[in-house]
């Protein structure tokens, strides 16, 4: 059974990132399952730290992006929207080039909070980072300017 409020479309989700940090670091959503979503991010000059490896903050950007999109496409956009409340990340393996792939799935989907687990892997499918993101589910006070669905 799908957790999504409506059937999400990859093209629409990817277009939603135009003119944002997500576009700048070239995060691209690649797959949506019934209870998970997946995106990639290149490991290059935009995402390196000075030692030439993936910056931990870039990993966190990918993790929070997955959780934010997942949380927002799982609620009724006419009634709620979701924002990040807390994030943690454990960096397990360094990556110096290629792509990292993040897979996000919910651990908890409540009325006021959601908790998402994000697993990042390198191109050899080795775990590079694991993150947990708590999302606040908020009621609309005013109409949000954009819709992902």
From TrEMBL:
One of its GO terms (cellular component) is cytosol. Keywords: Hydrolase. Pfam families: 4HBT. The keyword Hydrolase applies. Gene3D superfamilies: Hotdog Thioesterase. The keyword Phosphoprotein does not apply. Residues 51-129 form the Thioesterase domain. One of its GO terms (molecular function) is 1,4-dihydroxy-2-naphthoyl-CoA thioesterase activity. InterPro entries: HotDog_dom_sf, PAAI_dom, Thioestr_dom. NCBIfam families: unchar_dom_1. Belongs to the thioesterase PaaI family. This is Esterase.
């Amino acid at each position: 059974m799908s957790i999504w409020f409506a059937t999400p479309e990859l093209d629409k989700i990817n277009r939603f990132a135009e003119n944002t940090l997500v576009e700048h670091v070239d995060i691209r959503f690649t797959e949506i399952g019934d209870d998970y979503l997946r995106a990639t991010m290149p490991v290059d000059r935009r995402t390196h730290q000075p030692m030439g490896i993936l910056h931990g903050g870039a990993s966190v950007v990918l993790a929070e992006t997955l959780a934010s999109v997942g949380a927002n496409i799982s609620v009724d956009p006419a009634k709620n929207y979701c924002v990040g409340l807390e994030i943690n990340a454990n960096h397990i393996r360094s990556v110096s080039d290629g792509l990292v792939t993040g897979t996000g799935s919910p651990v908890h989907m409540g009325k006021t909070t959601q908790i998402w687990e994000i697993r990042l892997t390198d191109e050899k499918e080795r775990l590079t980072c694991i993150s947990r993101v708590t999302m606040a589910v908020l009621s609309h006070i005013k109409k949000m300017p954009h819709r992902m669905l």
